[in-house]
């Protein structure tokens, strides 16, 4: 399961550790091992001391052992592709779309397992926001109906953005864009 957490470049090691415990630990508990890159946050004294106390093994990827870092690189590339589709040029909104991209990523089928991350962890794929459309016409609270309308508007805007011709893209970028468009369509029922 992947988790995408927005933070600033100036975030210090203690804040990274707090983010980990607030966003990851509460969902999954303490890991047996963590594979990470050589970013200063993950090689610093605070991070190493914390995981030594938790009896968690830290593995660092290197150019000589790409298998330790290959999955992370693939997820990062996929995250970038999905965010580009989700924000459509509005670079300041990436952090506001991150939760949607995380949900879509974890709900999408993975070639390596043949299942989505949600299915592997929980045994099923959770309903997507598009499932809320089925509630229209029923007697529901006004604020809930506003939320549903907001989701519909976001999906409608994303659909329009995806249908616009992409200028100056090569065939690989176009194929990735088409792939993520179809995944988002499958997950959210729009586009």
Automatic annotation (TrEMBL):
GO terms for molecular function: nucleic acid binding. One of its GO terms (biological process) is DNA integration. Residues 1-137 form the Integrase catalytic domain. It comes from the Eukaryota. SUPFAM superfamilies: Ribonuclease H-like (SSF53098). Gene3D superfamilies: Ribonuclease H-like superfamily/Ribonuclease H. PANTHER family: RNA-DIRECTED DNA POLYMERASE, ZINC KNUCKLE (CCHC-TYPE) FAMILY PROTEIN. This is Integrase catalytic domain-containing protein. It comes from Lithospermum erythrorhizon.
């Amino acid at each position: 399961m992947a988790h995408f957490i927005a933070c600033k470049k100036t975030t210090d090691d203690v804040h990274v550790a707090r983010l980990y415990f607030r966003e990851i630990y509460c969902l999954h508990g303490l890991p047996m091992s963590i594979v990470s890159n050589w970013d200063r946050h993950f090689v610093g004294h605070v991070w190493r001391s914390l995981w030594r106390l938790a009896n968690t093994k830290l593995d660092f990827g290197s150019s000589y052992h790409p298998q330790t870092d290959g999955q992370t690189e693939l997820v990062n590339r996929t995250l970038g592709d999905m965010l580009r589709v989700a924000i459509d040029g509005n670079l300041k909104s990436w952090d506001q779309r991150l939760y949607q991209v995380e949900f879509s990523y974890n709900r999408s089928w993975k070639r390596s397992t043949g299942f989505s991350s949600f299915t592997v962890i929980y045994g099923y794929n959770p309903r997507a926001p598009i499932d809320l459309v089925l509630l229209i016409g029923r007697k529901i609270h006004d604020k809930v109906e506003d939320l549903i309308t907001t989701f519909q508007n976001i999906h409608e805007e994303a659909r329009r953005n995806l249908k616009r011709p992409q200028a100056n893209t090569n065939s690989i970028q176009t194929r990735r864009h088409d792939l993520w468009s179809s995944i988002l369509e499958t997950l959210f029922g729009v586009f």
